[in-house]
Protein 1
Amino acid sequence: MKKFILILTALILCISMVSCDGSSKSALDRGDEIVELVSEMVKSDEYINIMLGNVSLYDEILAEIKAMDFSKVTAIYDLKVSQDELIEIMGANRGDIDKLPKSLKDRFVRGLGSSLASHINSKAGTEELVISSLFNASKCYVDKSIKENQYLLYVFESGYSMLISFIPHEDGAVTASGSLILKDMLEFDTADKVEASFIALGIKTITATKLK
């Protein structure tokens, strides 16, 4: 099972939806685009069959996700998370990230948002971790106003959420990536409850601000 998960994750990272453009839009506009990309993936039986084949193990959770209405967003939170803490939580404390070549360090930092979502989903179980990795979408664009990592948490009527990360690169390039969070212990009623939920999952330094 572990071997299957590793192979699946590697395949997903290779063919994850990625597109690029240079138009000027707000972070919320970009977040909406990521949500739409994930929605397309969820609705595509062909995509799911290609990625999973005839694995019935995930039928129940897939049915729940396919029943989601991604247009029904009940709240959006801006999350301020300590990058140093994220790096430590994701296992970089086993080595010195600053010793990595810049290209590899940037690659590691780019993946922090997806790694955070995976960290949370892993608390729910193997099925949630695999399925959340399946529905991961990204876009790249130019926005010189984004100077540091940003994170938005979209909350849906179904009770699930999506973590969208915005990672800046050289010359104003930005990568926006979205990952579903299928852990149902998160509470979204207020910013305080969002913070408390993340703290309970080991993310100690976090500030949530409700945008919608």
Protein 2
Amino acid sequence: MQAIPPVCRLTLVLLLAGGLGGCRTLKKESDGGEASTPAPASSTLPVGTVHHIDGTAGFVLIQSSRSLQIEPGTILTTYGEQGEVTARLEVSPARKGSFLTADIRDGAPKKGDRATMEHSPRPVVGGGPAFPSGNDAVQVLE
């Protein structure tokens, strides 16, 4: 039988401990209101890298390897090689393939800077079923 290296065991323990801390149940409020769970803390999601900068027109092209549905008006933050904030951008509606455009709000982005966005999940509200029962329900095909 092959022994598990200590580093793998430590990683497994940390993953399990972190996962168990995130378990929550829905509670009914005492005043008869709807059940809700607190909104999880926001997280920073990587969007892509700055591919082209047009300083005179005030916009950048960001190449994204992810197929995120980023709404126009979303604020992005760019980071340089040392992790310092270089600019704040506002996503514009124009998209082409893996490229999205963003207007420069402040700062001076550089080619190759990493672009990120803050994501705040919506809280779960209501005491209804966890899955919709109508025709619009999401189906998982196996």
